[in-house]
Amino acid sequence: MPRWVWAAGAGALAVHLCLGWGLIRASAPTYDEPVHLASGYNDLLTGSFRLNGRNHPPFWEMWAAVPLAFLKPTAFFQHPFLAQRRVYNFGDHFLYKNRLSPETLLNAARLWSLATWSLVFAVGIIAWSVHLEGAAGGAAAAAGFAFCVPLFSNSALVTTDAPSAGCFFMAFFFLSRPDRGLRDWLLAGAATGLAMASKFNMIVIPPLAAVLLFTERRLAAKGLAAPSFRLWQPLAAAAAGALALALVYRVSGLPRYFEGLKAINELLAQGRPSFFMGAHSTMGTPLYFPAAFAMKTPLVLLGLGAAGLAAWLRAPSLGRFWAAAPAVAYFGAVCLSKTQIGYRHLLPVYPFLVVMAASGAAGLWARGKGGRAACAALGLWLAVSVVRVHPHHLAYFNEAFGGPSAGWRRLVDSNLDWGQGLQELAEKLRGLGNPPVYLSYFGVADPSHYGIRYRPFAWITNVERKEGIEPDDAPAGKERVLVAVSATNLQAAYFVEKELFGWLKSREPLAVAAHSIFLYDLTEDEAACRSLVGLLAADGQSGAAKRVLIQYAGAKKLAH
Question: What is the pTM of this model?
Fold first, then answer.
């Protein structure tokens, strides 16, 4: 590989890391991060897998907690929340009641996650692209990787999505090697084992790999060059995968993997509430993931990826087969899922998409000056499309669907609003003099940690929150009636009453925090104030309801 390609890769990695770091600094804890962090640290020290083992395998949680082994926070081994397996309460206590600040704990884990998985993706994507398309493909892959929003925005969080996607990608990367030897088989097996130890849905890799190896044999019989192998080699890969999985569970804890796998399959079969293009469902629709993929992926990557895949179909090879088939198969399998809460479940597709897009760009580059000018223009478009959203990349939507400001009308939950906007909401409230706010929040972060004075109503959370709540008897009469509502709640994704906030959607917000929390000033809006009073009263907060009326009456008196 030419040195300049390595230099391009290093530059791309630096850009990728900078964009991810900006997201880290701007984002409050997302919904599951405190649980993953606390569980990972507990499992890393004890190997008990007792807190979150039925919901997620422990590899990634423990890997993310590695920096904490050096920071040495309080572990709270004897806390009742841990003994009772109240996972969200324990995660909240671990993050906000520790001797170290929440930012120190969470951002150390986030940065470690971002650095390690970005490096894995960068090496795999660029090396695979160079093998398929030469130096031009490697350079294009570097550019695509640098601005691949789904990869850096998920790698920058303490969640299971990036590590499972990285291990999935590397497993097939090693299987695709044209000179595939024992080392490649063993590395593919180890990557498979670590993927399965990161997320339960990665159980799909062994059967998928078997099908693709069988297909490879059939294609070889039709004239495509393919490396030969003997039965003992895939068996060696399977043994390496089983060993990796067992070592993560420290061997004795391996039965917990199968217990968790059974439990999560039973849970997923029940479906889950989701919002899609104005409609609500619990069993999902086959259109959800294709549409989310189209909305949440930069248009340049979509276009070049489609061009690359089309070129591969016109001139197939075994290398191109391995770079496309796993992604296509996985995408199809995910579309059948009844759990539709975020495009992040498609994350294993994205490194393959970047490789396809690099191939499309390499083909364009080969057309001469015009093609090279087009490549430069597309690269600039990609960079601008992504950087314009900085640092709120979790809310990225491409231009064809109105960008992040229009995203809430189409998709919510982890596609847009994962609780990360609380930090910017606090900044906007400070700009208004830090008034109290009626807050309908989707998430688990602590508003009082950011200095927010609030009265909660219509919350979707797994944490019992008491800190910072504005008392009903606090002085009122001159304060504005400010209401902040998370986008997921605004669309009533998890409420039985789907028009709970129908009265608010048509009103213009005073501000929007991180494209995900809407702040409204209802002070002089009598109809809206009465709707708010009704919600507070229905929530059993009669004192807060009376306070709204006092605030409205005071504002009306001042206006006259």
Answer: 0.95
